[in-house]
Amino acid sequence: MSRRTPAAIPDAFLDGYAALLGEVSATGRALGRPEREALRDLGERAAEAGYGLRELVGLYLGETRRLWGTLPGVARAAGVAERARTGDALLGAVEAAVSALGEGHERATRLAVREEEAARREFIDDLLYGRSDLGRLAERAERFGLRLARAHAVAVAEGTGPYDDVHPVAGRVERELIGRFGDRDALITTKGGRLICIAASAEPALLEAFAATARSEVAGREGARRVAIGRPHSGAGGVVRSYEEALGTLELGEQLELGAPVLRAADLLVFPVLLRDRAAMADLVRSVLGPLTEARGGAEPLLETLSACAAAGYVNAEAARRLSVSVRTLSYRLERIKFLTGYDPADGLQRFTLETAALGARALGWPGTPL
């Protein structure tokens, strides 16, 4: 609902008010239920027409002041006591009238907010699932601050618990970003228990700030534990694609046990390629790493050793530190990997094969999950 200036409120919203005050001043009676309900309807109509409650109340108080001296009960009141009774009855009527107007106005406002929230939720569902006509979707997007002719990217934050639109973290993150970036081509919402930021590709700093803010002290103890950022793509379909990339990146981070708190789909493009043919990857894992199951203690310690060495750039001292073992123990494990698999981690090509197989094993849940 758009708001208008106080001067634009027509006298039609004072319908019957002068007669009502005149009767109250003459009889001293309180407002009845039908009169209160009529005032509630007036308040509701005013809200639907876009007039603010403050302006509406000001209109009624101004009319009360204008009529006060002309009201029959006030004009003929003989003594102080009678004037006090009349004034008390009138003020009670004004109080009841203003209260009823406010109830009606708030009732309409709550309904409008619910309708706006429903429209926003429907738009977000259609946008992220690509279920609507793209031209119509672009028109609706402008209402919520997005211009889909641009390229957009999507960031998805996942917490320890689900997020929804009324979650305090969602509100705090949105306020922080609006305070820093103002009204940019961006939208913050929730979907599937996750916090989501859709931003134009021209605003990469906003997505980075979203990732940092969702995990920072601003978000508090309920802040996100991991954020994934999809690549920018053009059009309404591009938003869906970036959103799916961000979700896939989150899933990949879980599968591969990636420790980084912020993951970017652009940095992990190789993994979907490697995992696209699951049957081939499973065959690689069985062929290359299957013999590790014969090691004392199973394959898991040796897989962890491969991962730690890769992460440490094959600097043995750093890899040993990450594994909390001695360099001697690390060297022994590398020798066992070479002996059991036939692949030498010191050889560049064979090392790549081992690393690829180890990543595939983590993605497929091996050795815990049979291939």
From TrEMBL:
It comes from the Bacteria. Residues 130-251 form the CdaR GGDEF-like domain. This is PucR family transcriptional regulator. Transmembrane segments: none annotated. Belongs to the CdaR family. Gene3D superfamilies: PucR C-terminal helix-turn-helix domain. It holds the Pfam family GGDEF_2. Residues 302-357 form the PucR C-terminal helix-turn-helix domain. InterPro entries: CdaR-like_regulators (IPR051448), CdaR_GGDEF (IPR041522), PucR_C-HTH_dom (IPR025736), PucR_C-HTH_sf (IPR042070).
